[in-house]
């Protein structure tokens, strides 16, 4: 009964006119981002972080969540119609979605994608609602030692699943931790590591880092690339026939289950889920040769998986306070901007916010079906907007947004600096996500480490005497040993290159 009471509380929050408006704005922006290649979800969310500063906490998180799962929907539209996935998680959909479109089944493919995504979004949100309180009860048993061990495990897991060299990923985490520790120190009135720069006395602005690393660097990167646009195919009818519908049901259910599971894992999320679901369907199919030539299963499974993965990737952040990927790291940043520490206390101390966001996911998923099917022609036309007009406008609003947070020109310079640094990182094979995770988790780890030693009188015993902490540390060491194995390195490189 508690779950139903909590869901009712969530709908009472989500159904307010302001939250409905920003939920709609979020899914609209997400669809737009998904449709337009070259403008990523993380970049868009980072660019909109300054706007959240002026919104209520629940409203800002509902909007950002809508952008996230809306992008999963939007990416499938261009993947099917013009063979151009707007999001990386839609790449698997291209394989059979575009083949269906070439056979005159574009409308059916879009409907299968929309219904599979709606089903997955509904089920996975229900799973969060059902399982969230249980996970929160477990998480409430966590003390400072458990939190430190958990965050250490999260950082190591992010290294395993980051693309590129492991050494480079570790270097990025250390750089992120260093940047996160600049500024105020809880045990001293004197700011640390500011290098004599007064603007750094309050620490490095998270929004400047996020906008620079993901927004500005992506624009610079896209300027040197020539995006090839394929002509859209004609769409004759929207509804799938009985055979296509029958073939889609099982893959949508399996994709939902797999996506929900992979979304919870650190480093997981929609990308891993969509490729995993596609590979699973091809593996178990009695006719795998149909895949790549317009099999409805190849559309339903990845679309259900990427949407389910997008929804359940909120679980580690909301219940344990650990971002599972870059997008969740930006969400964590948005919560800290609002003065909310991500973690189990969110459900207890900010119950309307937590359940309001859960309820908004259902509302947002229904909004997306309405947006994606009737307005598909409009989305395709947006692909014709020249990037020479789009990019300067985005750049302008980025600078305005960063400046508006604390009226500081230094933050704008910082964002530009991180934009150039982010571009260089991508060129040199350094993934920015571990840096962002290190930036957020580093200060939290330091705080929990200090608390543990303070409560134990300087002893490290709580780390290995408390069962949960010991288990997490063993898993961390096991993961480090696993990374050293040559066979694991080869498997990891193969899996990441396949993505």
Could you please describe the fold and organization of this structure?
The protein is an all-alpha fold. Helices cover 75% and strands 2% of the residues. The chain contains 23 helices and 2 strands. It has a two-stranded antiparallel sheet with strand order 1-2. A hairpin with a 2-residue loop joins strand 1 and strand 2 (188-192). Helix 7 packs antiparallel against helix 20 (433-455) and helix 18 crosses helix 19. The relative contact order is 0.18.
What are the low-pLDDT stretches, counting only 5+ consecutive residues below 50? none
Helix content: over 70%
The whole-angstrom Rg is 22 Å
| Continuous helix count | 23
What's the overall average pLDDT, rounded?
79
Query: Which range does the strand content fall in?
Result: under 5%
Strand order of the largest sheet: 1-2
- Gap from first CA to last CA: 42 Å
- Shape call: globular
SSE series: HHHHHHHHEEHHHHHHHHHHHHHHH
Q: Kindly name the structural category.
A: mainly alpha
């Amino acid at each position: 009964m508690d779950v139903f009471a909590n869901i009712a509380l969530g709908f009472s929050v989500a159904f307010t006119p302001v939250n409905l408006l920003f939920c709609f704005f979020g899914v609209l922006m997400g669809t737009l981002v998904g449709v337009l290649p070259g403008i990523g979800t993380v970049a868009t969310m980072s660019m909109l972080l300054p706007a959240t500063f002026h919104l209520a906490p629940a409203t800002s998180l509902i909007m950002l969540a809508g952008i996230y799962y809306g992008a999963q929907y939007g990416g499938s539209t261009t993947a099917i119609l013009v063979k151009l996935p707007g999001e990386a998680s839609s790449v698997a959909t291209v394989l059979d979605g575009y083949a269906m479109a070439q056979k005159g089944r574009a409308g059916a493919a879009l409907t299968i994608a929309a219904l599979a995504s709606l089903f997955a979004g509904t089920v996975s949100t229900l799973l969060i609602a059902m399982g969230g309180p249980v996970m929160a009860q477990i998480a409430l048993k966590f003390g400072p030692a458990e939190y430190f061990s958990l965050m250490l495990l999260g950082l190591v897991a992010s290294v395993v699943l980051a693309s590129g060299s492991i050494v480079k990923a570790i270097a990025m985490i250390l750089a992120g931790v260093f940047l996160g520790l600049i500024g105020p120190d809880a045990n001293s009135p004197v700011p640390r590591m500011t290098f004599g720069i007064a603007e750094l006395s309050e620490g490095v602005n998270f929004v400047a880092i996020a906008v620079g690393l993901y927004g500005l660097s992506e624009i610079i990167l896209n300027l040197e690339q020539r995006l090839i646009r394929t002509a859209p195919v004609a769409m004759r009818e929207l509804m799938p026939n009985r055979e296509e519908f029958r073939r889609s049901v099982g893959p949508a259910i399996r994709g939902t289950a797999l996506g929900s599971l992979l979304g919870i894992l650190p480093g997981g999320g929609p990308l891993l889920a969509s490729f995993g679901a596609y590979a699973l369907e091809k593996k178990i199919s009695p006719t795998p040769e149909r895949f790549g030539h317009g099999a409805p299963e190849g559309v339903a499974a990845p679309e259900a998986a990427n949407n389910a993965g997008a929804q359940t990737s909120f679980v580690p952040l909301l219940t344990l306070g650990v971002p599972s990927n870059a997008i969740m790291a930006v969400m964590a940043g948005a919560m800290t901007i609002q003065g909310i520490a991500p973690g189990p206390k969110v459900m207890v101390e900010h119950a309307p916010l937590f359940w309001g966001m859960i309820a908004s996911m259902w509302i947002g998923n229904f909004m997306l079906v309405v947006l994606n099917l009737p307005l598909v022609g409009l989305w395709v036309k947006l692909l014709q907007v020249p990037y020479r007009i789009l990019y300067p406008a985005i750049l302008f609003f980025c600078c305005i947004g960063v400046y508006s947070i604390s009226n500081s020109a230094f933050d704008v310079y910082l964002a530009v600096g991180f934009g150039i640094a982010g571009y260089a990182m991508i060129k040199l094979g350094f993934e920015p996500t571990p840096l962002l995770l290190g930036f957020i988790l580093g200060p939290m780890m330091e705080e929990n480490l200090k608390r543990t030693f303070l409560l134990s009188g300087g002893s490290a015993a709580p780390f290995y005497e408390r069962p949960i902490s010991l288990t997490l540390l063993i898993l961390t060491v096991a993961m480090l040993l696993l990374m050293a194995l040559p066979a694991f390195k080869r498997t990891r490189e193969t899996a990441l290159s396949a993505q």
